[in-house]
Q: What sequence folds into this?
């Protein structure tokens, strides 16, 4: 992971309401960021959820984000990060708009 990507993940982590940030490959391998319990499963399933959503909606538009509302009030926001990456953000609110510029920079690097 390049220093630029690490810095970008840290910038996301500093956004108000963000608890954890993870970058995984499209194949589900952990690339960087915070760790979750059952990290391998979390990484793989984040990539699968995004891939399935992109496949299901390919004829009607591109996936910008997937928001999973958790029973504790948190949200898991999964977004494409270029052709090779998936970004998963656990936050107290939907922070997608606040991190959009950073996601675009990640897309350029990945």
A:
């Amino acid at each position: 992971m390049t220093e630029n990507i690490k810095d970008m993940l840290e910038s996301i982590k500093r956004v108000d309401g963000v608890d954890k940030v993870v970058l995984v490959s499209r194949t589900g391998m952990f690339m960087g960021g915070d760790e979750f319990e059952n990290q391998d499963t979390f990484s793989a399933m984040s990539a699968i959820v995004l891939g399935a959503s992109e496949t299901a909606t390919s004829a009607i538009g591109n996936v910008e984000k997937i928001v999973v509302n958790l029973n504790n009030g948190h949200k898991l926001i999964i977004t494409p990060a270029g052709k090779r990456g998936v970004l998963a953000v656990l936050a107290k609110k939907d922070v997608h708009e606040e991190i959009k510029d950073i996601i675009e920079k990640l897309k350029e690097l990945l």
In short: The helical segments are 3-13, 39-56, 96-109.
